[in-house]
Amino acid sequence: MRRARYFPASVFLLALTAAGHSGATDFDACLDRLSSEASVAGVGQGTINNAIASVSRNERVLELDRQQPEFLQTFGRYLETRLSQQRIRRGRELLDEHAELLRSVQQEFGIPAPYLVAFWGLETNFGGYFGDFPVLDALATLACDTRRSQFFSAQFVEALALIDRDQMRQEQMRGSWAGAMGHTQFLPETARRHGIDYDGDGRIDLWNSLPDAMASAANYLRAMGWNEGERWGREVRLPDDFPLQESGIDTRKPLREWSVLGIRRADGQSLPDTEIRAALLLPSGFTGPAFLVYPNFHIIMRWNPSTAYALSVGLLADQIAGGDGLVRQPPDEEPLSREQVRELQGRLNALGHDSGRPDGIAGRMTRGAVREYQRQAGLPADGHPNRALLDRLRRQERDG
Q1: Mean pLDDT of 48-71
Q2: At residue 134, what are phi and psi to the nearest 5 degrees?
Q3: Per-residue pLDDT averaged across 24-38, rounded?
Q4: What is the structure's pLDDT at 342?
Q5: Exposure string (b/e) for 274-306, b if CB count within 10 Å is 16 or more?
Q6: What residue segments make up the domains of the chain, in order of their start?
Q7: CATH hierarchy code of domain 19-66+129-223
Q8: 326-342 per-residue burial string, b: 16 or more CB within 10 A, e: under 16
Q9: Architecture of the domain whose range is 338-399
Q10: DSSP summary character for residue 172
């Protein structure tokens, strides 16, 4: 038997101290890199020095980065927490309360008011909570992490540029754990490129000026290519014999082709007879609601690349405008944990269905691999990863 080895407490203390010193050294080196990048981008040295002197690493930011609800909740649970009756009622009240401003913004930028209010509601609960993280701390922490360093390094430099140009004040810049700011949670690059001083006070104030926030959001959506006069999409009804392999965000067909396949509106009426191209989404699988999503849906996903978020924006906008809720509700199902999704991805890869590197996030490649496995196994090919599928893959390995 190997003899256990015991070390004095001082040895462990030295090891912990060394590890902590190494982490601090790495962060300091990263701040030096960010300072150089900001200088190359033309940010004034005084602004850089003042900002860097106050920046600190925030471990809570990294914890939250690994726990994003778009990846850890079922669609039904995600929708339940974001489309509450209270939020819908409040959205309708604010639509009326700020009708003049929203009408002016819609006339100038072409974005319907219910969508602006829906973004506002989902991002900050209509200004109820902007987040309380110092934006520079959050961005520097993520820039010095390996997962998305390049993206957040650029955002950190953009934040310094906003301060340097006196468009924003550092002490005012508090926001989400990801460095998003104001009523509609703009990242610094978005604020710099699309922020508008709509109230004419000489500064873009995304926190205290609703005109600035709403006009900036509308300007951003227009710049991304919002199609004026078109919806985001709609809930639909599938026939019993629908070929589920046609679903997925990458398969787009004109509405009349979806009609030929038997798809109808959720209330049973025919789809519009147009050439607008749409994709069919089944966020809870074939037992849940189905949606045809149009080009504007993809614009929403450029704001936030989550199908659950984009569907929530569209559905909330519809209900704020006076529409009804879903005809078909998502099923009650348990979410897969990140570890379970990694296991699912690994098992699919081992069977020759490429789900990409197992990362615990059920994205497009994973859903495509699930759909291919389902098709070969003679299952409904809806591409929906769930516990039943994981259990089947485990049994398949166990039974040989």
Answers
A1: 85
A2: -60, 120
A3: 90
A4: 94
A5: eebebbbbbbbbbebbbbbbbbbbbbbbebbeb
A6: 19-66+129-223, 338-399
A7: 1.10.8.350
A8: beeebeebebbebebbb
A9: Orthogonal Bundle (1.10)
A10: G
